[in-house]
């Protein structure tokens, strides 16, 4: 019995103990009280190469699920390699990653309640980003604070709440990275909200794979993109839709797509 227990312990926790951190030296972390969420959030910061030797100001991308962005040691099923990707092209941008709280992830990353899965507390989560986190970042780092230089990006539920953030805070977020968005979560409520939205000027990068596992991902995303196009002239080229052949709902798709999304958005 003891041997079985030891084996299970090794299988579950072995990766954590043996895996070395893969985060680059450009990445650091801090914790911040989140009164809107009645919790404390761990925040990951990526500063561009040359930041400390410069007086420049930089655009900022806020990203969800920070555990999976920079470090294989903390990632659930693989990281996005955000830091290595940006280092490789000497990108001039600051990344702010917000860790999810595990069992509270569905609550925080969904704007509407789902009959089966619950959720619906993204308003509080986004209020934390806008009212607490962003002022802290802008006061601490040399940022470009306007909407044109502020992006919010995420995948799956993070893609959903990023799009919602653009609807709710158009004067804060001028750019969105919307990867494999879970628009099925509260579809009717989202459609109702969009029907009440008179204008939409945010730049959006829509991305998903054609093998996501959920047959609704592509039609839902295309429906949202169509709505976006009805709010402005397509000639403005303020949104881009990418469907990756063979792409699945996982970090591999998002990791391999991040560079192109960043270069298009910025």
Tell me what you see in this structure.
- This protein has eight helices and eight strands.
- With 266 residues, it is α/β, with parallel strands linked by helices.
- Strands 1-2-4-3-5-6-7-8 form an eight-stranded mixed β-sheet, sandwiched between helices.
Summarize the structure.
The chain has 266 residues and is an alpha/beta fold. 36% of the residues lie in helices and 19% in strands.
- Quaternary class: single chain
Please give the largest β-sheet.
Answer: 8 strands, mixed
Total strands = 8
Percent strand: 15-25%
In which range does the helix fraction lie?
25-40%
Using the alpha-carbon principal axes, give the shape: globular
Any key phrases for this structure?
single chain; 266 residues; alpha/beta; 8 helices; disordered N terminus
């Amino acid at each position: 019995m003891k041997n079985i227990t030891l084996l299970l312990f090794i299988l579950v926790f072995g990766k954590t103990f043996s895996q070395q951190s893969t985060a680059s030296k450009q990445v650091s972390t801090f914790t911040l009280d989140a009164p809107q969420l009645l919790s404390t959030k761990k925040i990951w910061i990526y500063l561009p190469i040359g930041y400390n030797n410069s007086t420049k100001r930089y655009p900022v991308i806020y990203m969800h699920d920070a555990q999976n962005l920079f470090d294989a040691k903390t990632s659930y099923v693989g990281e996005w390699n955000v830091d290595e990707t940006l280092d490789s092209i000497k990108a001039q941008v600051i990344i702010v990653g917000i860790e999810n709280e595990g069992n509270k992830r569905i609550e925080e990353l969904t704007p509407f309640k789902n009959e089966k899965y619950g959720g619906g507390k993204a308003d509080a989560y986004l209020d934390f980003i806008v009212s607490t986190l962003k002022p802290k970042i802008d006061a601490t780092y040399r940022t470009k604070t306007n909407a044109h230089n502020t992006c919010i990006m995420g995948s799956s539920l993070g893609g959903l709440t990023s799009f919602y953030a653009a609807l709710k805070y158009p004067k804060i977020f001028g750019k969105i990275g919307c990867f494999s968005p879970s628009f099925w979560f509260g579809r009717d409520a989202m459609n109702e909200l969009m029907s009440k939205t008179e204008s939409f000027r945010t730049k959006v990068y829509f991305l998903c794979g054609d093998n996501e596992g959920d047959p609704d991902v592509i039609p839902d995303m295309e429906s949202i993109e169509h709505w976006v196009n009805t709010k402005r002239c397509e000639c403005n080229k303020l949104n881009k839709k990418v469907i990756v052949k063979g792409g699945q709902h996982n970090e591999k798709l998002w990791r391999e797509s991040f560079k192109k999304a960043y270069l298009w958005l910025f």
